[in-house]
Fold each of these.
Amino acid sequence: MSLIVQKYGGSSVADAAGIKRVAARIVETQQAGNQVVAVVSAMGDTTDELLDLAAEITDQAPAREMDILLSAGERMSMSLLAMAIDAAGASAQSFTGSQAGMFTDSLHGQARIIDVSPNRVKSALDRGHIAIVAGFQGMSPESKDITTMGRGGSDTTAVALAAALKADVCEIYTDVDGVYSADPRVVSSARKIDEITSEEMLEMAASGSKILHLRCVEYARRFGVPIHVRSSFSHHEGTWVIPDPNDTIHLEEGQPMEQPIVAGVAHDRSEAKVTVAGVPDIPGKAAAIFNVIADSNANIDMIVQNVSRLESGVTDITFTVPLSEGPAALEALRAHQEEIGFQDLELDKEIGKISLVGAGMRSNPGISAKFFGALRDAGVNSELISTSEIRISVVTRESMLDDAVRAVHTAFGLDTDVEATVYGGTGR
Amino acid sequence: MSLIVQKYGGSSVADAAGIKRVAARIVETQQAGNQVVAVVSAMGDTTDELLDLAAEITDQAPAREMDILLSAGERMSMSLLAMAIDAAGASAQSFTGSQAGMFTDSLHGQARIIDVSPNRVKSALDRGHIAIVAGFQGMSPESKDITTMGRGGSDTTAVALAAALKADVCEIYTDVDGVYSADPRVVSSARKIDEITSEEMLEMAASGSKILHLRCVEYARRFGVPIHVRSSFSHHEGTWVIPDPNDTIHLEEGQPMEQPIVAGVAHDRSEAKVTVAGVPDIPGKAAAIFNVIADSNANIDMIVQNVSRLESGVTDITFTVPLSEGPAALEALRAHQEEIGFQDLELDKEIGKISLVGAGMRSNPGISAKFFGALRDAGVNSELISTSEIRISVVTRESMLDDAVRAVHTAFGLDTDVEATVYGGTGR
């Protein structure tokens, strides 16, 4: 008998029909001889509606109270789902974050998990129940207050529970059939990935792939939880995210799987490029700049220092930050212009980032050559380059990004003629 | 400095505007130098909307899950109210039933309070906060599950908190200015009662007065909590419900108040009359009948045994039960007709009950005479009569009920020419 943790997003439980459909699927999984824990998000737009309500009251809601308000969303969906399971002939008990032992720090709105002790969930399973757990929320043992975990919270709840319960798999149900070798909306010939390593999935997520949130992949990798990303609208096999590349969990015993050289192509339109021009080319200036940025709480992604302009004794430093954080970063730098002594600042919002990800890169020379060759042939100019052991990323003009993604996807033989299926929006 | 517990029903916090209005009132109360605990119900129709959602899923929702679903309503209103208070410049913390230490038995949907230990509420007050507490809900220490307390739950929450915190007063905010000597919708000349004893209020509630729920008055009386029933739409003094008739809490020191002979006239349309005809007039038959009713969980109010018909050796036994429970009671009796040996059964739904309530009755002879005189003059025929030390109740035709109430109200000099004010619906 396997223990399966399933996570259903808000779009899967948007209305009574959706809740019944999900309930049927959960019961089916139990009747196939498994123990089932289902982590559920708030119904459809509930969270937005609650935020609107709060906005009618104040635009500076105390974080503690906002978390209490938002946590009501999962309490509704989880109890309704338990009712639907009961009506479908199985028995279920729903648990809030604190009842499920999801203990977090007290950073309201973006709490991090510090401990998971799902005793009540365990005993519910032992008594033959299906356990429903509210995603996205926890409790701070320090303040005894309700907390919420921010974006990707429900996915993280599911993976954390799977780790604590030593579940065989954590199934993340979403509105696509799995992880694709590129965004099907950009590359119609994108292929569904059957298996990808957590390491690769991390790079994909960090490079703009929206399907799984970085935090949940990190957590799954750290605790060795296999994730199966699949659609709640179909029964197709989805994508297995494997912590240990030597496992081939979704395949029959003794049927090893060939590790493809590259996993996929990710792209990201959410960043802006900041150039600090005319920085005195003397030690400590870069440090000074990035201290200022750090104080402005902007998250820097790529950094490039241009070669010093001969004789001038000055250099340019360029980096990327999330679009939303660009203005704050610029403001912070201007405030320290004298002390740092740079000549000029420039914010460029028209950039896009393309990344090629694959564990096979380590052992395969010539990947970069092929990558840049593909970009060149597509007439794509690269403005910034950064690499990891298993990733190459290039910043280019946003207008060129889609061409770039398609060109690289084709160049690495990732194209397929199987049509990708996209069903709807996703929950939190 | 006084400690004041205030309870606001769903109609007072139906929307953002209402929540802000209530917040302003609470802040005002604190700024007048008091510590304030506000118990709040779910917003307007939230509870009905949640029930509709559940009905879309199943018509047999497990009670445990239904309580989790319904309890979400107060979590929204309480956090929004705390936000509004914060926006109004004061500081508030909201607490769920379990956080506020409202411990109940595990009878989901109609849980009874078994213990109240509001430590977190106390410390919030000590730190200068206003404490908001979710009404209607608690937690069973036995099952660790969320429970709800059924009709009048939020009033009971407020009174129980007031008792545990030794509050100076429990203010119940509603949509009328207080308790009236009769239902203003029936008797336009009804007068607002300034002060009434818990004992009288109990009889009024038991006799059909809807303004305070029986449970909360019982609780207030047992623990000596003075209740001030008033409107959240005005600042008028409301009605004080005094546990000890020797207190005159709302008056200046040393200014005793004259106890009126009668407090008011209550009426009730919610009952039906059951007649068991031709019951063998031998010992034990009545017991047999009421055992059967008890097993059917019907709540009997009035009972009359007619004098035995001479020679016939049979008698009739008549009693009243809530309309909704009438059919079940009849069914139960029919199932035991042979064993009890009665001849016939009759259910009469067209009845109404009028009750005259007043602690002064004890010491004043002639009250009954005046009461029945008034009914006679109004042409009202009485079918059943029951009395307590401070109450006379009569069952009559429902069609005659309003006339009866007006006649008795006038006969006891309760009429006033001050117009009663009714503002809207009430919450739970």
Amino acid sequence: MQLHDLTWPDVEDYLQRSDGLMIPIGSTEQHGPSGVIGTDAMVAKAIARETGVRSDLLVGPLLSIGVAEHHMAFPGTLSLRPSTLIALLQDYLHSLAQHGFRQFFFINGHGGNIATLKAAFSEIQTGERERGGQRPLRCTLVNWYEVAEVVRLRKQYYGDQEGRHATPSEIAVIQYLRPDLIRKQPLPPPGPLQSEVQGAADFRAKYPDGRMGSWPDLATPAQGQVLFDAAVRGLAQQVPTFFSEGG
Amino acid sequence: MQLHDLTWPDVEDYLQRSDGLMIPIGSTEQHGPSGVIGTDAMVAKAIARETGVRSDLLVGPLLSIGVAEHHMAFPGTLSLRPSTLIALLQDYLHSLAQHGFRQFFFINGHGGNIATLKAAFSEIQTGERERGGQRPLRCTLVNWYEVAEVVRLRKQYYGDQEGRHATPSEIAVIQYLRPDLIRKQPLPPPGPLQSEVQGAADFRAKYPDGRMGSWPDLATPAQGQVLFDAAVRGLAQQVPTFFSEGG
Amino acid sequence: MQLHDLTWPDVEDYLQRSDGLMIPIGSTEQHGPSGVIGTDAMVAKAIARETGVRSDLLVGPLLSIGVAEHHMAFPGTLSLRPSTLIALLQDYLHSLAQHGFRQFFFINGHGGNIATLKAAFSEIQTGERERGGQRPLRCTLVNWYEVAEVVRLRKQYYGDQEGRHATPSEIAVIQYLRPDLIRKQPLPPPGPLQSEVQGAADFRAKYPDGRMGSWPDLATPAQGQVLFDAAVRGLAQQVPTFFSEGG
Amino acid sequence: MQLHDLTWPDVEDYLQRSDGLMIPIGSTEQHGPSGVIGTDAMVAKAIARETGVRSDLLVGPLLSIGVAEHHMAFPGTLSLRPSTLIALLQDYLHSLAQHGFRQFFFINGHGGNIATLKAAFSEIQTGERERGGQRPLRCTLVNWYEVAEVVRLRKQYYGDQEGRHATPSEIAVIQYLRPDLIRKQPLPPPGPLQSEVQGAADFRAKYPDGRMGSWPDLATPAQGQVLFDAAVRGLAQQVPTFFSEGG
Amino acid sequence: MQLHDLTWPDVEDYLQRSDGLMIPIGSTEQHGPSGVIGTDAMVAKAIARETGVRSDLLVGPLLSIGVAEHHMAFPGTLSLRPSTLIALLQDYLHSLAQHGFRQFFFINGHGGNIATLKAAFSEIQTGERERGGQRPLRCTLVNWYEVAEVVRLRKQYYGDQEGRHATPSEIAVIQYLRPDLIRKQPLPPPGPLQSEVQGAADFRAKYPDGRMGSWPDLATPAQGQVLFDAAVRGLAQQVPTFFSEGG
Amino acid sequence: MQLHDLTWPDVEDYLQRSDGLMIPIGSTEQHGPSGVIGTDAMVAKAIARETGVRSDLLVGPLLSIGVAEHHMAFPGTLSLRPSTLIALLQDYLHSLAQHGFRQFFFINGHGGNIATLKAAFSEIQTGERERGGQRPLRCTLVNWYEVAEVVRLRKQYYGDQEGRHATPSEIAVIQYLRPDLIRKQPLPPPGPLQSEVQGAADFRAKYPDGRMGSWPDLATPAQGQVLFDAAVRGLAQQVPTFFSEGG
């Protein structure tokens, strides 16, 4: 169920049986010469949507822009300052807390968001405590690509050529979700991983075409479907478990 | 063209011929007993997408959460503080300005966003001036429901029963875009418009089911299609005109 | 009655009979070659003061600096970032709410303030709601130059040469209020209105002497008096009406 | 000269001969049972205005609301959070720096503003430095009641009964400036000064009628005129001296 | 070398040979019934100091307060909102960048700081990029307890009873550094680890005495010395390596 | 007693007998050619520590970075924006207020912090009042070098050559506390005091070696001990007195 597809009386009904909401969060950033800029957002949204269907739980609107400073030397990338994303998450969660939602499960598609999400959870819990709230908001996040079965599949399919950005696994999921976006031009094998990136210019100097040690050409739509299903299966277990702990 | 569907080299190519981008902005808010919470966001996104196709211009990611304080007494509504939305718009536009975009045309689906969008344009232009930018960012907004032909059709189709919120015109567009979301239960005719609303509780006291003088039951998918096409036709003229003035 | 002219026991007495306050807000910005920089502030202040006298209602201190980014290419203009004005309005209203004021009627002299005022109203109402306030603060604004009778007179006196900035109507009110400031040097007729202004440099490029299609030379002190009286008469009706709705 | 009374070409001319501006800042706060709420603002404004006349230097718009948390238990008091006043001062000075003003002399009427003004000067100079400005903005403040001759007169006229708030000296200046505001009801002699005030409730507990050890009944309009003239004479020397040091 | 122990000419000399600085960051938070509140700060400071000695590199002032919301139900804990810590880190690093420092190696003693540190690095790099800085600031962090040899020793010494908070390893280092603080009263063995903590009240409900599955009684000063030396040895290699990459 | 040296049950016990805490605050800034950068922080910390011992009252963690914009033209200086320090102080005090602390006595080592500390006290008290707190937080500050007996000794020892920055009195206390940091190279006598400093570049232009009219060579460790003892004796009286007033 998508919050956007419900009426307000539907939400009132939902709150009778659950105070939990899933929130997909992605990024709008370069994904190499063949990966589309919306990759992280589209994948997080689709996985959350399907997880909502299978678990009969509600999904809130996608946060499609994340923290992507490292990718800012490539045209088309958007990046939020972490303090902006913290403010945005405060408003998102405080709005829902007003209606009775207390539990939030973020389904994340971009590693660069993790630090700011965790910082925001802390900032929100400080605010709740200072206002004297009796029951704190409960927040957690899972990166879809770190669901156990997905990790196993990524290794099996792509081994070392999975890399760290513009990975064949995420490209494969996009190929499954959006076959119209498949690019045919072959890419050379990836260069090696470099030392820790420091800022946008450094990223582009170390990884001139935007990939981090990945070979997206290995991706196939069929693998994408398997990866997608594995992520959804894993999350459709984890999300209800998390919500039941806070019940 | 959707920014999310492009690779970064595609964006590099686009910037050779245009420095303009459309940005759809909606809201996540109650739309009466039969209208879905994502109405403003879905309509703005779909109209921007189709305008992008017809005008061969780029569309950035949807801003699906707006300023909806007035609707916060109805479950499911999200609202950003205006200062948060200003910060978010700063980061969105500054990111794109880094890549060479200079012109931004917001396609807006929610009246409550207008004030904050205009405030943000001013704040962004102050920032640009203080940093000594040579060419200012150009920003404008159009509400899709105020495109001239759309205004005419809304009057023709619904007259006084168009109302001011959860209007049959926006419901009709959703019926056209998402027939799966059509609700069948009939609503009573709308009550009269009240004096100016002051905050969330006052809104609900004055408009207990969330409609503001509107009768969404008048909506049909066929009207929705006509309204949608009129909005796109109008915008497919206005957007390129705006961008050419700043060229 | 001016808040500044009362003692604190006077205010305590006033609160026995009203929880409403008028707030004049103007701007400090260029008004063409013959209009003074304080025009918007002086006019708003004088109209609010006289409205207070006629309606026996209290007037708070003038906000003399507004949002005037568009005029920043002309020396002497001051402009607040919208986020600063929102913070200032929060403190102004929260201070008064502490004492029991609940209703605020802004008498505005500058179009550039409208968006930020409305954004601030929303931000303040969000804050009130989150703190759990039982009765929300009520806020509204009226531009003195849009009082119905003032609109009629502006058209009658100046027709198309009223223009949009440094208008003969506001110059006339200043001539009435401050005859010592009347400038005698004749100006040429105004140039035509241009397309939407984008930032300070663009404003000056389009309107090199600071006027927007206006011919201030048409102004007379006698017209200024008529305009002033019309604004006050209109507001002396609207303000008590607004306050009584919230009673 | 008042900035509000000039046109933009007048300001352009002024900048040929000076880059300095005086800024009056007061407060909107209780001044005991017989002192008006606008005392600090009115006095600062009038002294700055007359200093401007005598020194032929420009005076910017009054900041009429200051930091007055200690007085918030008395109706009618307004108080800005220091962080708000810092933001407001940044925008005020940055706007003028855009036009070429580099020197700012604050004429202050309220002790509670001093800390925040000094903090703002530091914050503004940090900002200027980080933007790489070649010549820093120069800022200083003088409290009119601490001009040497004013200090002497206050002691001579009122001795120990000058007190620390709602003092006969400031009441006297208001009596001189605004004889219409003179209150006749006699007050009892002041109680003793108490230990350091901690917040608004503590202030009212220690000083129930709002005075801090002062006896405003001693004030006369004639004394007010002498005090006013002494302040202006002192400032008409200090202001040009300060500006010439930065020339 | 401690920055605090140098004169400014000493720093000028240092900058001739290095643009790198170590920054210790800890926390002020409960460490169970026998661990002192300053544990994380003291350990980080001492390890950084000794690493500075061995590597002949400079150490900046300790950040002794971190993000410790989870521990706020225990008296004595301090916690910064992440947005405050981001602002503090911006000022710390921007100040040093003014003098020519470009590389910052944080030696961290508290897991709760990691997310905010990483968010701050991103926010700082965005700011640098937008100001047009040619060479970005380089920032990294290492948790002393995750230095490889320290990880090995913790497992060897304490096995499962190391736990996750108020661990014997950190208590041991404090015992080595500050034998005067050794507490003698025996604690019961630790309870089991619980599901993910959600806020301060939840932490105390799950871990009533403040330990997370740890048995601090296992700690000895001799182990503390070995752990301390292992951390310093590891860092005395990592820090110069990091700085040399950015040279 | 140092908060850092206690366990949380110790703090629980302390709160049974006192709700007061001392907080040392210094600065990290140049202190001339022979004074170390940590002077203000080390002195404030040591005096607070010893005052805590003698008065049996608790001392919170040192704030070692202050507002030092004026010194930013000398390498090694750190400076917080006042708004950052206000935020930091809010979090510091709000954290402790959560546990029951209500009274805070700042022992300050740097004149540049005073304005921001006072602004922060006001901002914190506004926040407390708006949240409806029954008993306000009580805050005060004393500069150790302005304790009466210290003032007398400074005049006696150094007369006019005490100066205003990098003074022999603070150097002497450091010599007493840290004999290992004593510098031997002789400095020339100080130049004269200049007109009010305006920003970092102006400071260095007026005081090229960082001293403000001071001759640190006059300092001896023995004097440092006397000064230190005088400061502690004075504070060991003032702190308990302040706390008892708020009891």
Amino acid sequence: MSTDDPLRQATRQLARFPGIGERTAARLAWWLLRQAPEVSEEIAAAILHLRQGMTECSRCANIAAADPCPTCGDPSRDTGIVCVVERPQDVAAIEASGAFRGRYHVLHGAISPLDGIGPDALRIRPLLARVEQGEVKELVLATDPDVEGDATALYLAALLKGTGVRVTRLAHGISVGTEIEYADKSSVARAMEHRREV
Amino acid sequence: MSTDDPLRQATRQLARFPGIGERTAARLAWWLLRQAPEVSEEIAAAILHLRQGMTECSRCANIAAADPCPTCGDPSRDTGIVCVVERPQDVAAIEASGAFRGRYHVLHGAISPLDGIGPDALRIRPLLARVEQGEVKELVLATDPDVEGDATALYLAALLKGTGVRVTRLAHGISVGTEIEYADKSSVARAMEHRREV
């Protein structure tokens, strides 16, 4: 078999996925070859459509199929309380807990000087713009309980001091070291319930 | 987020891969969203091209980018000895050993009455046709050392009795580098059964 036949190409491409090594990628490629052609077509189409069909919400910076996203576009949700998260996946985790009926703001990361990520690399300015519009009464900081998440929460708390906005932080319920994306929903619900003043 | 937005669709499609659950699929989909659009495009193209670009060799039934496959098309290889394997992947494993310079024949499975797989479901007839052409002097049966692989080897050996073709089977025993203490008991049993004069 030549070094760049379609099988090798597919193996190499599938091995780009995080956590998928060469061997697993080869196994997936062989599996595709044994399926009906529609399987490959449907998977390829979904991958293409994913990148083309999702966009960043111009209000909360969440990634969704529409702008504004379903949460920002839902008039029944409380505009006075905004939950600030690191990643779009965290929105889904908090929604699954059913404990929050406000809006969100996605930072797309956390402050991490070691990785060269400062406040300007995050969606902090649009968050301040939302606060300046005056509707926001409380910000719930739901960044991860790790060094970067804590640093980001402290930075935001300092930044918002004197604006009159109540700043709280998710606290009890999420064990230290667990990323919010992977926390179980009752822990997320508890954390929301017990949020504390920063 | 609606239940069938592009993210959910991609997650569902990626979860069709064997060994990839819903959570891993979601993680891969989010990873794709964070990459440049070219990453999704290249992976999708490789998946599509894989199914369109690979074909079954009309001589040995191996899956390759060309027909005849590179092995069948290589005039330097011995046409007198044919290694019979269950899967195309087995060809790659034997090639990697560097110990074989003959041709191959891929059965695409093994006889398994419990799964309803009889001899007619395998590429046995084209193998017999190759034998009847008279060039084959030896068949090395390299089916798996399990119930189905053994049954398939026995079936082929019986079928080829009287044709004058030498029929051999890959030696099974303790794998090189395995300490006897840690070898599985059926490998030890085979090794004992097939012991050789030193």
